[in-house]
């Protein structure tokens, strides 16, 4: 089972990375934030829906049925992948001269990317893919902070699926299925957070850009400033109101604050990195995905020990305090990010 779980994660990780990249390929600069946010909706909704299905099916059909549920959803998607076209402009352009060379028997036709990479060796590619993400993180404080912050947010989000049964089961007497239904608040949170985020993108980013005003990458972080404050507020509200004498909707509202803010901050950070370091965006996204996965994996492991050692209130207070410390980091990045980028050897 452990070996199969390894292969599941190993072969599933490229799909998680390719989805957002494909949405970026097929949308223009003005609609890209909206397209990427739809990707975020499904990313946050996936574990919530999975918990709901598991809460109602596993008690009656056994734990193996949860694996069959994955097969039912993944099977048609695997077939669909066989018919999906490539979306990167570089790949489409690369295939065009190949057809021209084949039809004309003239080998002189080359794309710019072919000419630029003709002297690049396999060692150069491995360095670009495996070493460069860590080098940029180590030498650039702003990128290092965003990696740590996004990893912390993913860890807290994943640990909530461990905290929920602890709270809504023993405290409020809910069954596994009912606890899963409460997780629908994550989907509601993402949808509600989209309203102010889309409004800012439309009026604060797209409208000035169409009018010819040049915006800095730090201008994209403005929604993250507000969202960063709501995260610790929501965590504190969840931790300190999860009591039998307080209605279950109150701590659930705290989760809504935190989850909606998670999505907004992650979107802002991804856009910021892509605009600040476009030349190394692929490497940075790869390194950031690895950091998120590792820290989120740790979040699943320390959820129960944290609760057993400190209790729910103090444990959630610790997580809220960590997020509160990171609030200052977002404000520093917004205020001094341009100076840090100018000093970076990786700035473009």
UniProtKB/TrEMBL annotation:
One of its GO terms (biological process) is xenobiotic detoxification by transmembrane export across the plasma membrane. The keyword Membrane applies. Gene3D superfamilies: MFS general substrate transporter like domains (1.20.1250.20). Signal peptide: none annotated. InterPro entries: MFS, MFS_trans_sf. Its main location: membrane. Keywords: Membrane, Transmembrane, Transmembrane helix. It is a multi-pass membrane protein. One of its GO terms (molecular function) is fluconazole transmembrane transporter activity. SUPFAM superfamilies: MFS general substrate transporter. It is found in: Membrane. The chain crosses the membrane at residues 36-59, 65-84, 142-161, 181-200, 221-240, 246-273, 285-304, 316-336. One of its GO terms (cellular component) is plasma membrane. The keyword Membrane applies. It comes from the Eukaryota. This is Major facilitator superfamily (MFS) profile domain-containing protein.
